[in-house]
Amino acid sequence: MKKQKLHPDQIILGDCIQILKTIPEQSVDLIFADPPYNLQLNQDLWRPNLTLVDAVDDSWDQFPNFESYDDFSRAWLKESRRILQRDGSIWVIGTYHNIFRLGNLMQDLGFWFLNDIVWIKSNPMPNFRGVRFTNAHETLIWACKQKNRKYNFNYHAMKDFNGGRQMRSDWLIPLCTGAERLKIDGKKAHSTQKPEALLFRVIMSSTKPDDIVLDPFFGTGTTGAVAKKLKRHWIGIENNADYVELAQKRIDSIKVGEFDPAIFEVQDKKSYQPRIPFGNLIENGFLTPGQCLYLNGDEHIKAVIKSDSNLLIDDFTGSIHQTAKHLNGGKPSNGWQLWYYKTPDGELIQINELRSEFASRSNIDIDPKSDLE
Predict the structure, then answer these.
(1) Model-level pTM?
(2) What is d(CA 138, CA 134) in angstroms, rounded to the nearest whole number?
(3) 288 and 258: one domain?
(4) Secondary structure class of 51 (helix, strand, coil)
(5) Which residue in 191, 175, 166, 168 sits closest to 135, CA to CA?
(6) Gap between the Cα atoms of 132 and 135, Å rounded
(7) What pLDDT, in 10s, does the model give residues 266-306?
(8) One domain, residues 193 and 245
């Protein structure tokens, strides 16, 4: 099948397998796939108040048997692997009905698993019949193209996003409800619309601005909507014309201002150089406890170095940054640039010069982005 030139930021109407075959090799950076669950529902589900549950009974989720579902899944996964960049990755979401079959197929095709993420629904649908545990989660498989393959992961950005703690593999995120849920005549437009919060974490964690994110089961366009908000390019494949129309209107309604590109960059401290703690200068004899430092080289504003690397001035104790901030009326302050030490001959020199000397001796490159605490 003839390969087409890739045009991002569009929805392609048609069969996902046939369309994937037309996409050039190694042309997308991330794939998020929310394929049919193959729920195998055998009967209607009723609430205790005798109202019918709006279950996933769409035609696109119905397969005659496991073999046909596996054939379908193997085909789109094979093409997905082909079009992924060498350092790209794929996220596949499912329930207990299908995720294990998908995982087996992915491993057979050569994908290398990086994580399985448990999306814990804070507001799951109850088990109305009372015959099983309430199904309160879905599983996402995150994988790269093959073992030992480089892949993009914004570890430090996600750690910062999570309040300075490592982002865990259990994500507590509510179902898509309220104003975010697309409706037609008061009813859900799509039975399995995913919350934008879920896609935000997926896209933020494993892409960079201007990367191309592809969703072969686009539905009502959550992947495209979040990608647009995060300044990523996107491609959606969807075989239902009604969903395509809804998704296009949804994405067109999103207005993203002309922000500084730096706003959308993700912090990747793996590429940053190591920090040099102020304490390194003390333990290596460049400075000594009891020695005075002078703010902005002014001998009238001085602080004493403590043995724990904090500075003491009057009744305030803090790091080189905190004490400088304290003396500057709460303004964020880079202590490396503001504090000076006095040489034996009385010359006042910025302590950053000592840091540079220590870094040179230790063969360490300094990253100024890591200065402020």
Answers:
(1) 0.68
(2) 12
(3) no
(4) coil
(5) 175
(6) 8
(7) 766 544 445 788 988 998 889 998 999 999 999 999 999 99
(8) yes
